[in-house]
Amino acid sequence: MKVLRVEVPRPAAAPSYDVVIGRGALARLGEFAxxxxxxxxxxxxxxxxxxxxxxxxxxxxxxxxxLDALLLPFxxxxxxxxxxxWADVLDGLLEAGLGRDxxxxxxxxxxxxxxxxFVAATFLRGVPVVQVPTTLLAMVDSSVxxxxxxxxxxxxxxxxxxxxxxxxxxxxxxxVTLPPFQLRAGxxxxxxxxxxxxxxxxxxxxxxxxxxxxxxxxxxxxxxxxxxxxxxTDELEALVGRSVAAxxxxxxxxxxxxxxxxxxxxxxxxxxxxxxxxxYSLVHGEAVxxxxxxxxxxxxxxxxxxxxTADAIxxxxxxxxxxxxxxxxxxxxxxxxxxxxDKKSRRGAIRWALPARIxxxxxxGAGAHTVELPTDExxxxxxxxxxxxxxxxxxxx
Amino acid sequence: MKVLRVEVPRPAAAPSYDVVIGRGALARLGEFAxxxxxxxxxxxxxxxxxxxxxxxxxxxxxxxxxLDALLLPFxxxxxxxxxxxWADVLDGLLEAGLGRDxxxxxxxxxxxxxxxxFVAATFLRGVPVVQVPTTLLAMVDSSVxxxxxxxxxxxxxxxxxxxxxxxxxxxxxxxVTLPPFQLRAGxxxxxxxxxxxxxxxxxxxxxxxxxxxxxxxxxxxxxxxxxxxxxxTDELEALVGRSVAAxxxxxxxxxxxxxxxxxxxxxxxxxxxxxxxxxYSLVHGEAVxxxxxxxxxxxxxxxxxxxxTADAIxxxxxxxxxxxxxxxxxxxxxxxxxxxxDKKSRRGAIRWALPARIxxxxxxGAGAHTVELPTDExxxxxxxxxxxxxxxxxxxx
Lengths: 397, 397
What we know:
Two copies of one chain form a homodimer. By secondary structure, chain A is of the alpha/beta class. Helix content of chain A is 45%, strand content 17%. In chain A, the strands form four sheets. Chain A has a seven-stranded mixed β-sheet with strand order 1-2-9-6-5-3-4, sandwiched between helices. Chains A and B meet through helix 3, strand 7, strand 8 and strand 10 of A and helix 3, strand 7, strand 8 and strand 10 of B.
C-alpha cells in the first residue's frame, strides 16, 4: 500500500490525514475506518449504482471488524447533487438514530464524495468522513482536499463547506467497472495538475496517455484479464499516486484556497460553464479538458501563457481521447454568464487560473496565482479561443 | 467598550476573535466590520422584525465606512429556522451576485445568529460572519462559540456546522425594544453558566435577579427614561460581560464540544424537548429554565447533585420571573422520546450535563463532564423530577 500524507495547516479545521492507495484496499475498509475514524456507527453513502456494485463489499469489510454500519443509497446522477438529496440523506441518518459519535463513509465518484462530505460537515455540526473514491476522477482529485458541497439552482457547488476527510482509501481495482468514458474523463485532472505544477509529471503523462486511453477503450481496464489490462491498472495506480502527491502539496500550502490552491481551477471556469450548458451530458472531466483547451488559448492570446503551451496540452488531451470539438450551443455570451455566476469571481470580476508554461502557473502583477483579464475584450478573446481550441498540430511546432 | 477575547485553539478552524460590548456600539458596526471581516460586499441577514427596527441603522453605519452592503430579511419566528429558509437566504446571496470575497452579518436573536452563521459556513464553502446579537439570549450565549445551524424536521439544530465568527458586536441599548418575556428568558443562560462554572457569578446574579426581572417587567428596559431603566441597562451590560467571559473560557478549552463544553447543555436536554413539545410557544430561555429545574432535581435524585442545588437554582429562576409550572402535555414518555432524538445522546444513551453543586459540573467515573443515568429507572426518575420541580422553598433550607 502506498501512503501519502496530506498536511492541513491552520486555519483549516482538520488535522492531517493519509491517502492510502493499493489494489484490493476495499477489503480493508473496516480496518481503515476503525483506525482513522473510530465511531459508534458508520453510514456508508453511495449512489444507487455504486451501492449495487460495492455496497456489500464495503459493509462486509466493516462488519468483519465488528463495526456497525448501514448503507444509505441515493439516486445516481450529477443532477441529483442537490440540497434536496443532501437533506434526504441527512434525514436518513437521523431516522437511523445516528448520533454525534457516528462517522460517514463516502463510497463513489465525485458527486458522492462531495455529497457525503457535506453531509458529514453538517450532520449534528460535523462528524468525520472517510472517502473511498471509486472513479478515477475522484481518486486523483476530488477525494483529497476537503472540498464538499452540492449545487444551488443558480450555481454549481455553491452550497458547501471545507471538511477534510479523516482518511482516503483508494482501491484501483474498482476501476474495472468504470465506463470507459469515465476513465478517460478521469485523466483530465492529472493533466491539469501537471500543466500547472509539474513539467516532469506532464511529460510522464504525455508518454503514457495513449496507453491509458487505449486500456479504457474497451469495457473498462480489466475487460480482459490479460497483461495489458493488469498493466494498465498498475499504471493507473501510479498515476493516482503522483496526482494525489501533487494535489496534497498544493492543499498543504493553501488549504482554504486563499491563493495558490486556485491554480487547480485551471480549465474549470469554462469547464463548469460547459457542464451546466450541456445539462450535465458532458461529465466533469470532459468539461474540464475542454475548458483547459479554451483557457490555455485564452492565456496565449493575452500573453499570460507561453506560445505552444495550448498545443502541448491539446496533444495530451487528444491522446487521452478527450473531446476537442465545441458544441454550437456554447456561445461566448452563455459561457461568460455562467462563469460570472461561479465562485471563482472576486470583486465581481472572474479570476482565471492559467499556465504560464507547462508546469507553472501564471501570476498577476501582485504575485497572485490567478489573473484578471480585460473585461471589455473578454468576449472577443474567448470567441477566438473557442474557435481555435480544436486546432492542435500533431507534433510540436 | 469592553473587549473580550475568545481563544479558539485547534482543531477548530477559526482564529481567535473579540466580543466588543458597549452602549451605542451598533452605530460603529461599519468600522467593526471593516476591521474584523474586511470584504468586498456585506449581506446583513435579519428577520423581518429586526430588519424593520435596526436594518437601516446597520446599513447606515456600513455605508458610513464606504462599505457596500445589502439587507436580506427572512420571516421572523423560530419555526422559520429551517433548511428552506437557509436555502432561500443562500440563493438571495447568489442572486445579488455576492462572491467569495463577501461577508455575512447576522443581526438579530438566536435564530438569526444560527441561520446567518450557517449561511456563512456554507456559502461558496464558507465566508466570514460578524454576529450582532439583538436579544439578551443571543448576547450572553448563542452569538459566541461558533455553533450554527437550522432545524431538521426530526430534530432541533440537527443541520449545522461549527463556524466561529470573525467578531461579535454587542450593543445593550438595543434591548429597549426587546419584549419583556424575551428579556426574562435571556436570564436563563447566565444562570446556567454560573450554576455549572462559577459560584461567585451565581451569587452575583442571585443578588440582582429581582431588579433585572423588574426592569424587564415593563415594556422593555427603557420603558421610561428614568434612572431604573438606565441602571438596568448598565447591569445588563455587566451581565453580558460576565456571561461572555464565562462562556469564552469554556469554548477556548473545548471549541468542538468534545467534553467540557457539554456542561453548557445543562437544562437543554429537557429544555429542547419542551421547546419542541410546546410547538415553540415556549421560547428557548423559558424552556431551558424549566429544563434546569427538572434536571437539577434529577441530579439530586440520582445523587450526582448536592442536596439544595435544585432549590437554589429554582429560587434564582423564580426571581427572574421564569416559568415553574409544568404543562400537562409534557409527559415523561414524550420528553424522553424527544431527548433521545437530540444531539446529546452518545452510543444511543442520553448524556446529561448536571451540576455537582452550584458552580461545578458533575463528572462521571471516567472524569467526563456529562453523565449517563440508569436507562431503566429514567422514566420514574424523570417523572419524580417533573412533579417536584415547581416546589421551591422561599429561602435556603
